[in-house]
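Hi L., both proteins are below.
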Amino acid sequence: MSTRKGKTMSTKSNEPGINEYVLRVAWTAHRGEGDTTGAEAAIFMQRLLPAEAFIMTDERPDIILFMSGGSEKRALELADPEKPVLLLSIRGYNAYPAATEVMAWMGNHNRIAMLSDATDASESGLIERWRAAAGVWQNLEGKRAGLVGTVSEWLVASDVSAEELLKQFGVNLVGIPWKNLPDFSNEEPDNALLSRFGGQKAAGLDEAARILTLLRRVISENNLNAVGVECFSLVQQRKVTACLALAQLNAEGTVAACEGDLASMAGMMAGQAATGIVPWMANTTRLTEKTLILSHCTISFDLVSDVKLPTHFETNNSLAIDGQMTAKEVTLFRFSESLNSVFIAEGRVSGRPSLPDACRTQVEIELTENKLKILREKPLGNHLLMLPGRHADLLELACRYRGIKVVD
């Protein structure tokens, strides 16, 4: 069975929380500067950012704008010890030397900061990326995620504790045992999933749609923004997969990770908060001298075309997704089990293989020699997350903003 009726890939850049963060900007200058300096600072920032993107304030700034030299102590008074800050300077008047001195102090005191000439930061896109990076973590703060079942036993490097998820990402984790849920067979098949295939029938499609109805109920009743599902017990005991259900949820913008992989679920939430796109969670299937092959059975319908519904690879039961990746350039990333380090790489899709000994949707990606070496020698786990497009700069800055180490 196949279909060409899946949704086209959407960047979802207009979704709530994406690029809506309002930057808090403070200014600093030598105490002998005139009374108009504050107004001049506001006018200067208006040349760099839209009016709705920032406010001028003396409290908890995201940006400190240096208007002259001799402004260092005031900058330290303004900076919030619990908040990263971007140090920008106008050109001339010893503003950049002052900002440099403050940047050195920040480094000496283990504070998270970046330094740039303000005009350069605007022209390079750094200010907008800083805004987006801050917005990632604001977007995640207070979100709720659920783990249905347990983390699959083979994921020995992917079991994020509820404490770490809350501390690092601001996300609350709820445990939901399978035994506490009603039998999926009593649910009505989900119409959104069935209609995706234009009324065509495939053995197991109704059962897969009933799983989706059950998961929607779990998400609604627990007020969840994301879910990780331990799905192998389901396919082993009931001969039905959650692959299609998870793919549909991801296509709709609700993060849904399989195998109960909490590291991947957290990363998917961060990737969506940064870009508006729910990433694909996939196996590191093979490495060659120049390429990586990813594969998995749960890819979002938004990321593929020519979708077919073969059986699930490992069990040969029920249904899985075999689609053709539509992206040509991609970003890969993966957080560690403790969420304090991350792997990030950009690559180019070089092939769409059809290996008989791997999960159903497959893609071959060209990566640099160094990134492939990291995957061989310092992997953070099997599952990698893939986003269409190039997002490494934003993801790296967002992680630096949070104090998360980028593996290199």
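That was the first. Here is the second:
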Amino acid sequence: MAQLNPILKTAFKAARKAGDLMLRASNNLSMIKVDSKAFNDFVSEVDRNAEAIIVETLRSAYPHHRIITEEAGVIGSQRAEFEWIVDPLDGTTNYLHGHPQYAVSIALLEKGVLKEALVYAPERNDLYVASRGQGALLNDRRIRVSSRIDLNQCLIGTGFPVVDQSVADTYLAVLKDVIAKTAGARREGAASLDLCALAAGRFDGFFEFNLKPWDIAAGALIVQEAGGIVTDMHGQDDWLQNGNIVAANPKILAQLLPLIRKHLQAA
């Protein structure tokens, strides 16, 4: 694996422990206890146990940091300068169906600014990391977003609005337009890995509605450090707050954003 700074080394220690738990549990998926938080929103005992491992590892190294997790919520002081954002298992539905597209996502903010990011895919033993101003890596290899400049040659990653379906009609209108004007769209079920695929040049763009900070914080910094741009649907910087995200290289983002905004105005 790549040489990591102390913060990312701690994050990877946590992610690898959680990933080992997931791999062991995946040998007998039928025995995993699963609860439903809402329609199409599942949480398993693996999510909770992996989260406990990550939180324990981070807090033992950085006891004064704040941690925000998908399941446990906010841990630590509201006044902390450093804040971890953790998704212990991004792609729970994939995981519970034996589909290997899932990951641990961990990001660190300092005074509200993303500074460090890690996404770890246990099934492939792939480690994506980024530090602000230092570029992005997949394992030991530096990665960059694609250099395509024509939208009609691009492969776009996306995610269906399966939990909150209030934007379903708008989303389907956007998706129909994207499919008609690109080389295709893919929905793989884990936003953190979709963003990493964009950072590595396998996707040329990505968009999704109504995501949570833990879905996108780490992946977004990895995209930015790989040369991509991340915005909300209106081209602004509020994507971490509102969960509506568009990402691509500069040339493709300039073509993708107007296509999306057209349908937002129609809605």
